[in-house]
Amino acid sequence: MAHFHPSRDQLVPEVLEALLRTAAVERLETSEGVDVLVRADHDPAAGVAVVSGGGSGHEPAHAGYLGEGMLAAAVPGSLFASPPVSAVLEAIRAVTGPAGCLLVIKNYTGDRLNFGLAAERAREEGLDVRTVLIRDDVALPDIEQPRGLAGTVLVHKVAGHLAAQGGSLDDVAAAAERTGAGIRTMALALTPATLPGAERDASRGAELGLGIHNEPGARSAEVSGADDAMALVLEALDARSLADEHGGRGLVAVLNDLGGCSPQEGLVLARELLGQLGVRPLARLIGPAPLMTSLDMHGFSVTLAPATEELLAAVDAPTTAPGWAPATTPGEPRTRPAGESTAEAGDPAPTTEDGRVEQAVRSGAAALTAATEELDALDRAAGDADAGTTFAAGARAVDELIGSGELGFADPAAAVRRIARSLETAMGGSSGVLLAICSTAVARALEDGRSWPEAFQAGIAAMQHHGGAVEGDRTMLDALLPAQRALAGGGGLPEAARAAGQGAEATAALTAKAGRAAYVPEAATAGAQDAGAVAVARFLDALASALR
User: Tell me: the pLDDT tens digits for 126-148?
Assistant: First the structure.
């Protein structure tokens, strides 16, 4: 299956049921059984009721805009089809009080006629009902009846906000008319919508100037990226001229996902919108967000409107409607300086008088470098075959620090901290990070006055905490932990190195439960030692031999 849609007949009922279970809305029991949703907290006596609706498939429009500061009722039709007159009339009756009702209607023939007839019948019943027709589509400039698109949502917000402030029906209707007259919308899609139970029309490619009912665009479009797509839309909107015309107060922009764009695509498109039009002309940006969709249509629309005080007050006002996307004020990217480390990890660590420890560590580093091919071969069964290369990179970095006089062991805590920072940057991969975690914790424990065995234990504990592995998982820990126990039991480096070697050998019989090897078949690593455990053993053996 390509979608989680149920059948076409079931799609709308299931969508509405989910809203009824998750939002503060209620289903109105209508005479014909058509679903009408109303705000659960709406009081008809409280003020003007704003009602909208139309075909489904455009979610969150229209039921997603039920809430304080937006709609009082939403009348959803079946998929891409206007609701019946009876449903609209019963919605008007349910939410309209003495202050009256405003119907916000998208300019499609079915919506215009059905909502219009419902308004006439409501007036016959003595209800004060006004209508406002939204015609924000500019894809077909010569057509006498432009379509209502995503700009409708701005009218919902203006009318709903003013109604919530106690505005009269005259005021609410006039504000809706003013807003509707100033908005313009243009859409572009790479692919059309896929109707439930049907195949997507493969003959249609990128199109500019689409409606929301899956009708073809005004023309085909050549698009190679988000920059091309946004440029075409802004050109069709005559966005630059509009920005110049309203340069004093700026514009409100709505970046609407038509249903099939990923969040990442939405942000890339927002970057293009802000980059091509500039942030200065935009007083507010709403989106990127799915505000009025067309099922899974892979495209977007941009709505532009003059940033009047009336519109800004409305889009900035809070609402409980779950489908609304809060407006933001665009600006240039901001940066702040990073915090400085208090550990002074980059300072040179003083060397010992005889240099014996430094030379021993260099011997350990040389042993790791010499074992590069062996360790890479052991790692090959687990995937990247780069364990030897990784450990050698860390070993060379430490060796170079000692050779340049930047790393010595007269102050063990400072030395281990310097090693931690070096491994973090030089090794890469999880092994480098884990050893840096271990070394950082060892350094901190040494500063606190703990012995080497205790500090070693603290480092391993930190590695286990952050890495999630335990002994027996076929990792470096299978060599580190035996070595630590040998030291804690009073043994010296030779005993620790011997214990680490035995632990590494034992990994050949273990099943990997952590790290990359845990994701490959057990047979792939059977009989082979873990490369990380072997690296630990090789280093400790060379270190112990040099300090004898």
Answer: 999 999 999 999 998 888 899 99
If we measure between CA atoms, which residue out of 263, 271, 315, 251 comes closest to residue 289?
263
Question: Which residue, 328, 345, 376, sits at the end of a domain?
Answer: 328
Better pLDDT: 160 or 201: 160
**Long-range contacts at 164-172 (CB < 8 A, ≥ 24 apart):** 164/47, 164/68, 164/69, 164/317, 166/47, 167/47, 167/48, 168/48, 168/99, 169/48, 169/99, 169/100, 169/101, 169/102, 169/128, 169/130, 172/48, 172/50, 172/102, 172/130
- What single-letter DSSP state applies at residue 35? -
Q: Report the DSSP beta bridge partners of residue 101.
A: 49, 129
**Of 211, 249, 222, 268, the residue nearest 58 (C-alpha):** 211
pLDDT value, residue 127: 98
DSSP states of 412-464 as a string? HHHHHHHHHHHHHHHT-HHHHHHHHHHHHHHHHHHHTT--HHHHHHHHHHHHH
Given the residues 42, 156, 161, 213, the one annotated as active site: 213
Least confident stretch, 127-136, 191-200, 490-499? 191-200
Residue 312: burial class (beta carbons within 10 Å; 0-12, 13-18, 19+):
middle
Q: List the one residue out of 92, 52, 129 whose CA is nearest residue 292.
A: 52
**Distance (Å, whole) CA 132 – CA 104:** 5
Please name the helix (run of DSSP H) or strand (run of DSSP E) that holds residue 21, with its range, or none.
helix 8-22
Res. 489: pLDDT tops 90: yes
* Residues 322 and 214 grouped into a single domain: yes
pLDDT, one tens digit per residue, over 42-76 is 999 999 999 999 999 999 999 999 999 999 999 99
Q: Are residues 315 and 387 in the same domain?
A: no
Mention every residue, 6+ apart, whose C-beta is less than 8 A from residue 221: 188, 205, 206, 207, 208, 229, 232
Q: What does the buried/exposed string (b/e) look like for 219-243 if buried means 16 or more CB atoms within 10 Å of the residue's CB?
A: eebebeebeebbebbbebbebeebb
| Domain of residue 125, CATH code | 3.40.50.10440
| Residue 510 Cα distances to 88, 504, 513, angstroms | 70, 10, 9
Neighbours of 350 (CB within 10 A): 14
pLDDT at 245: 87
Contact between 272 and 241 under an 8 Å Cβ cutoff? The reply is: no
Give the three-state DSSP class for 352. Answer: coil
- The per-residue pLDDT for 351 is 84
User: Residues with Cβ < 8 Å from 75, sequence gap 6 or more?
Assistant: 36, 51, 52, 53, 54, 62, 83, 87, 88, 91
Q: Residue 197 — pLDDT band, cuts 50, 70, 90?
A: confident
What pLDDT is attached to residue 113? 97
- Residue 95, domain member (yes or no): yes
213 is catalytic: yes
β-pair partners for 207: 189, 220
Residue 116 lies in domain: 8-193+208-328
